[in-house]
Automatic annotation (TrEMBL):
<dbReference type="GO" id="GO:0016757">
    <property type="term" value="F:glycosyltransferase activity"/>
</dbReference>
<keyword id="KW-0328">Glycosyltransferase</keyword>
<dbReference type="Pfam" id="PF00535">
    <property type="entry name" value="Glycos_transf_2"/>
</dbReference>
<keyword id="KW-0472">Membrane</keyword>
<dbReference type="InterPro" id="IPR029044">
    <property type="entry name" value="Nucleotide-diphossugar_trans"/>
</dbReference>
<keyword id="KW-0812">Transmembrane</keyword>
<dbReference type="InterPro" id="IPR001173">
    <property type="entry name" value="Glyco_trans_2-like"/>
</dbReference>
<feature type="transmembrane region" description="Helical">
    <location>
        <begin position="336"/>
        <end position="356"/>
    </location>
</feature>
<keyword id="KW-0808">Transferase</keyword>
<feature type="transmembrane region" description="Helical">
    <location>
        <begin position="291"/>
        <end position="324"/>
    </location>
</feature>
<comment type="similarity">
    <text>Belongs to the glycosyltransferase 2 family.</text>
</comment>
<keyword id="KW-1133">Transmembrane helix</keyword>
<feature type="domain" description="Glycosyltransferase 2-like">
    <location>
        <begin position="41"/>
        <end position="202"/>
    </location>
</feature>
<protein>
    <submittedName>
        <fullName>Glycosyltransferase</fullName>
        <ecNumber>2.4.-.-</ecNumber>
    </submittedName>
</protein>
Length: 384
């Protein structure tokens, strides 16, 4: 039973949607009216000096390709050269520099309040995109039942380390599940890499909650669909170090549980299908480490009763040793196993931090390995 709960978010949940929920007829994204609805492009940045110039240059191209678009950037009191770089563009963007760190959500709320537009495009500073990304996303919003359109995120450095390969593989599975959801009822939330929503549906999240999940769940509660735009890909680096990825998973899980706890009174009133999808794809995924740990303990107990405690203890020590060797040597498949265990451990710690410690991660330091220079594959894809 515990093992079934552990695999449900990734295996039996998407299978159940395929078997029991009819896919919507494929409808291509509509052409934008002329002129298109006005657009505000919003981005929050902290220590992003290695990527911020290229990002702003691309956003200027995105805005020019779209038409009636403005660019709004909040610098969350960076400690590096981010502000000096952004100030070069002060005549072309709406730049707000925070006097002290207040967090991404505070910054995004401030930018939305300063803008006036029909649509809002949210993006992260380290995400690479195509020039026509805004136009392609806006076409999906021509359908009045759609409240939000999100780009498909591709990790560009899966061949660097076992951790990067594991993260990329997991995210590919996530994108497959999102495709199934999008075809049948709409996504159950989206990530903050790049998504566009209707301003009329925007509700300012509390500053201590992560904005992308809060906003997408707000759209879901409002009865509008979130679609995965098949024709829009964006690119980002995955974390390359297992401990770095563990800390990232810990933060994300804590933030996600905080949003769940704040919004559950509203979420629980949804219709059966979106509620089933939400519980399956969100809370059960965050609880996966505890399901896996419980299943492992039950299996160990059963094995100990059959083979003896000494043999079970020796095998447990051997397994732990192999995981340590995998982490130290990066030798596959041991390194993949050690990275997976550390990621699950990070998620579990994040859940405990949210539920029992009240931690919020209002501000945090980005993982260094995802802020390196863009990968050639991403740059090449953008230029095509």
């Amino acid at each position: 039973m515990l093992l079934a709960c552990a695999v449900h978010p990734l295996l039996t949940y998407p299978l159940s949607l395929r078997l029991f929920v009819r896919a919507r007829p494929a409808v291509p994204a509509a052409a934008l009216r002329s002129p298109p609805p006005s657009l505000a492009i919003c981005m929050s940045a902290y220590n992003e000096q290695d990527v911020i110039a290229a990002k702003v240059e691309r956003l200027l191209e995105v805005a020019a390709a779209y038409g009636p678009a403005t660019i709004h950037v909040y610098a969350d009191s960076p400690q590096d050269g981010t502000v000096a770089i952004l100030e070069r563009y002060a005549d072309r963007i709406d730049l707000v520099v925070g006097a002290e760190r207040a967090g991404k959500t505070f910054g995004m709320n401030l930018l939305v309040a300063r803008s006036r537009s029909d649509y809002i495009l949210f993006t992260d500073a380290n995400v690479e995109s195509q020039v026509d990304v805004a136009t392609r996303l806006a076409r999906w919003l021509a359908d009045p039942s759609v409240g939000c359109a999100t780009a498909r995120l591709v990790y560009s450095n899966s061949d660097e380390t076992a951790t990067a390969a594991l993260g990329s593989g997991y995210w590919q599975r996530e994108e497959q599940i999102k495709r199934i959801e999008s075809d049948r009822m709409g996504l159950i939330g989206c990530d903050g890499a790049m998504f566009m929503m209707r301003r009329a549906l925007h509700r300012a999240p509390p500053p201590h909650l992560i904005d992308d999940l809060f906003l997408s769940l707000t759209i879901l509660i409002a009865g509008k669909r979130i679609v995965s735009a098949d024709d829009v890909e964006v690119y980002e680096r995955s974390a390359t170090g297992a401990n770095e990825e563990k800390r990232r998973k810990q933060r994300i899980a804590c933030q996600a549980l905080n949003v769940h706890r704040a919004m559950w009174p509203q979420l629980r009133r949804m219709r059966f299908l979106p509620l089933y999808a939400y519980v399956s794809h969100r809370p059960m995924k965050w609880l996966m480490p505890f399901f896996v740990a419980g299943a492992t303990l039950c299996a160990a107990l059963g094995f100990a009763l059959a083979a003896g405690w000494a043999v079970t203890g020796a095998l447990a020590l051997l397994g732990a040793l192999l995981l340590v060797i995998g982490e130290k040597t990066q030798a596959k498949p041991l390194s993949l196993a050690s990275s997976a265990v550390l990621s699950l451990y990070g998620v579990g710690v994040g859940v405990i931090e949210s539920v029992f410690m009240g931690k919020t991660y209002t501000v945090w330091d980005p993982a260094l390995s995802v802020r390196l220079d863009p990968q050639p594959s991403a740059t090449d894809a953008v230029s095509r």
